[in-house]
Amino acid sequence: MKSILLLSMLLFSAKGFCQDRKNVILELEKKWTQLLESNDTTALKEIWSKDYVVNNAAGKIVNVRNILDLIKSGHQFPKVERKVEKITFNDEIATVMGGEVEYGAGEKIRNRRFTNIWKNDGGRWKLIARQATGN
């Protein structure tokens, strides 16, 4: 009986832990998109790992320095509505997949598919990689 009770407690705790991690990642997905739209480079550098890399929808591979230089040059990232369809965890790595709609001047520019990779680094989740494809 004690074994069943202990197992039930562990399973419930694990489920709660997974749900908590999922909620944290969902919130971070919203937050970093808002930061990018507002060009908040200070806060973005806190969310991105120092080696963050993106294979963007234009097919170009860029890193943190490239993105920061683009923002400094006056580039304004468009509004994006992201729909997370799947989050999976593999140890301290979270893989987020789904679809996005990019908007410009109030109207839809294009649909994209994305994969974002997050890593838990000492208790803080950092965005380490992104792939976006679109038409």
Question: Would you give an account of this structure?
Answer:
This protein has 135 residues and is α+β, with helices and mostly antiparallel strands. The chain has helices spanning 2-37, 41-47, 64-72, and strands spanning 48-55, 61-63, 79-90, 93-104, 107-121, 124-134. It is globular, with a radius of gyration of 17 Å. Residues 1-16 have low confidence and may be disordered.
**Order of helices and strands, N to C?**
HHEEHEEEE
Helix share, percent: 25-40%
Spans of at least 5 consecutive residues whose pLDDT stays below 50 are 1-16
Individual helix count: 3
Our estimate of the beta-strand percent is over 45%
Order of strands across the widest beta sheet?
A: 2-1-6-5-4-3
What does the largest sheet look like?
6 strands, mixed
Structural class determined from secondary elements = alpha+beta
Mean pLDDT: 87
Principal-axis shape equals: globular
Instruction: Tally the beta strands.
Output: 6
User: Roughly how many Å apart are the termini?
Assistant: 58 Å
Computed CA radius of gyration, to the nearest angstrom: 17 Å
